[in-house]
Design brief:
alpha/beta; Rossmann fold; 2 domains; seven-stranded mixed sheet; two-stranded antiparallel sheet; 9 strands; elongated; transferase; RF_methyltr_PrmC; SAM-dependent_MTases_sf; HemK-like; S-adenosyl-L-methionine
Length: 278
């Protein structure tokens, strides 16, 4: 046992066993208290059951399990999302994709989120723009179940469909298509490090060169975009040049990349060419 009965919250916080932020989140979760209570109840001594519960969660984190999976939730774009081992954990850098999408989505616009996972991108867009018609696709039934619960949780309307990329929307057209597809190349060392070890491989890697899913989206999107409609995709830290080249080869207009808060080119996109534009 990591934590013995009778240990106070103050003592635990003075001698953190994990990253202090992770430990605070796990303590609050195990004890069912808020961050404020963690401070105001600093003299609280843990009971036998509480010490055992805290120790169990700390052990899981020490074994590498992501905090988001342990507590079953992660904040994204100011909203609380249910997550689990069947979906990718939403990350702050993906909020850039949402911001860019909202800037380009016309009134009552139709938006398609491909590979929705937890539904974070689709739900965030629908929450910020209730007028939008949001469709979200995923090949994983388990992911779609979590995404639907997240949409219900936030009271938004998203049309979820089980689909291998564009197959379920063969006749659909949209003003905007967004995606955070699997883009890590097979064999990349990051797949065996940190939280990625626990996340679904199919949401992380294409089991190829890291660009195959992006190629599929880029090649298929023009048939589903209105003239001038945007395609926006998240990708790896070193893939912006390759993604720009793929978009340009398919005659998208206005091809460009945008940087996240860390200064990394994180999202690349372009517009479906209008007649006479190329």
């Amino acid at each position: 046992m990591l934590v013995v009965p009778g240990t106070t919250l103050a003592a635990l916080q003075r001698a953190p066993l994990l990253d202090p932020v992770d430990q605070r989140i796990l303590l609050c979760h195990a004890l069912g208290i808020t961050r404020t209570a963690l401070i105001t109840q600093s003299d609280r001594a843990l009971t036998d059951a509480e010490a055992a519960g805290v120790s169990a969660l700390l052990q899981r984190r020490l074994a590498g399990e992501p905090v988001a999976y342990i507590v079953g939730r992660r904040e994204f774009y100011g909203l609380d999302f249910q997550v689990g081992p069947g979906v990718l954990i939403p990350r702050p850098e993906t909020e850039l994709l949402v911001e860019l999408a909202l800037e380009r989505l016309p009134p009552r616009g139709r938006v398609l989120d491909m590979g929705t996972g937890s539904g974070a991108i689709a739900v965030a867009i629908a929450h910020a723009r209730p007028d939008a018609q949001v469709t979200a696709l995923d090949v994983s039934p388990d992911a779609l179940a979590i995404a639907r619960r997240n949409a219900e949780r936030h009271g938004v309307t998203v049309h979820f469909q089980h689909s291998d990329w564009f197959t379920a929307v063969a006749q659909g057209t949209f003003d905007l298509i967004v995606s955070n597809p699997p883009y890590i190349a097979a064999g990349d060392r990051h797949l065996s490090e940190g939280d990625l070890r626990f996340e679904p491989p199919g949401a992380l890697t294409d089991h190829a060169d890291g660009l195959s899913a992006l190629r599929t989206i880029i090649e298929g999107a023009p048939a589903h975009l209105v003239a001038g409609g945007w395609l926006l995709m998240e990708h790896g830290y070193d893939q912006s040049a390759a993604v720009q080249a793929l978009l340009s080869s398919r005659s998208y207009a206005g091809v460009q990349s945008w940087h996240d808060l860390a200064g990394i080119a994180r999202v690349t996109g372009g517009r479906a060419s209008a007649p006479g534009e190329g």
